[in-house]
Structures are given as structure tokens and as C-alpha cells.
Structure prediction request, 237 residues.
Amino acid sequence: MADLVEQSKKLAAYSAVDDNLQSDYKVIGIGSGSTVVYVAERIGQLENKQNFTCIPTGFQSKQLIIDNGLKLGSIEEFSQIDIAFDGADEIDTSLNCIKGGGACLLQEKLVADCSKRFIVVADYRKKSPEMLGHAWKKGVPIEVVPSAYNKILRELKLVGGTPTVRPGGAAKAGPVITDNGNFIIDCDFGEIPVNKVKELNDKIKAMVGVVETGLFVGMCEKAYIGESNGEVSVLKN
Prediction:
């Protein structure tokens, strides 16, 4: 099973790079997650790889860029990105995504927003047959200013969510701290209908103290899904 999942990730990533990375592109966004490992690997195999400057979305993707011999840049230097590749925790039928399982959602969304084209790569487990929240049961990640977390927990409950502050785990006492020094709240809203994703995102963003949400609404151009049968499905809007 593990080998099948890894193969599906690699197929999706390689196909996405081969189909979409044009030779005249100069700046590429490199996202986070286990599938993007293969995106960086594929770009690192190209003969013209030194023509590209790669913009990371966090510590992990910075290391991927370096490890694959790619040229590292920063969003401060390059706020106009030709194309960005990233993974997702779940994708609905309209290519809305939940992201942020790795706590990089703010920088991931910033890179995606700066990109002319945003391509998602994922394995078959991330494709929702219906709506967000169907397969991903950990809730919508929300990055918040630490001093506001208690207020935001209360306000999320008022809009029908079940929020929890993400714990740091066995190696850390207290909450997860993002690369930006903030907390992550994971909020379960159940299944989110396609026509309600933007409305929910807007409600959360309007809460003072929220920095960003893990709902990526209308940002994805195409999603490459590595299927369990060894094929790659391409979803488009």
C-alpha cells in the first residue's frame, strides 16, 4: 500500500512538471508536503534547471530546493512567480483545497497568490468525491496571532465550528508555532458544500486576529492526481 501511494505521488508530480513547466519561465514556487518532494526531484533532473529561481513556502521546501541543486530565491525578491506547484490535504470538485496540515498555509497561500499559475499535485486519497471535509477530518487549519487564540476559538464556535489549538506534539510543550511565530487552530466544520467554501473562508478571515486560513478558494488552475491504478487524472475548472 505504501509503495502504491508513493508511486502515485511521483507520477502526479512528474506529469505536472512535464506538462506545465515552460522553458521561458524564470521563477517557480515550490510548495510543501510529501508529493512536492517529487516535483523538486523532477525539476532537479532538467538540463536547464539553473535558468529557474525557486521560491520556497517554508523550511521543508527550502531544503528540497537546495538538495536538488536548484537556485534558491525568496518571495521578498520575486513577488511575481510564473508557476507554483504544491500539494493539498483535500481537493473538492471545484478545485478548492484544504491546506495547512504541515502548518505552512500562510506562506503557501502567499506564493500561490503571487503565481500566474497554481498547480496542485496529490495522490488519490486527497481527492474528495463530494466536498471538503469528506476525507480530511482534521478540520480547516487557521493561522492566528497567539494573543487572539482564545477569542478566535469562541468566534469559530459561533459560526458552527469545533476548533482546537494544534498541539506541538511529544517534542514540544504547548502549541505548534508556525514559521511566522503564530498558532494554528484546526476547526472542524463537517462537510463544506462547494458553494459555501468562499463564504466560510470570508467569515473566518473577517475575525480580527486571524492571519490566514487553509481554505484555498478559486486559486488552483489544475490538479494532478496520482490514481491507485497507476494513471494520472488531471482535474480542471
Q: What stands out?
A: The two ends are 30 Å apart (CA to CA).
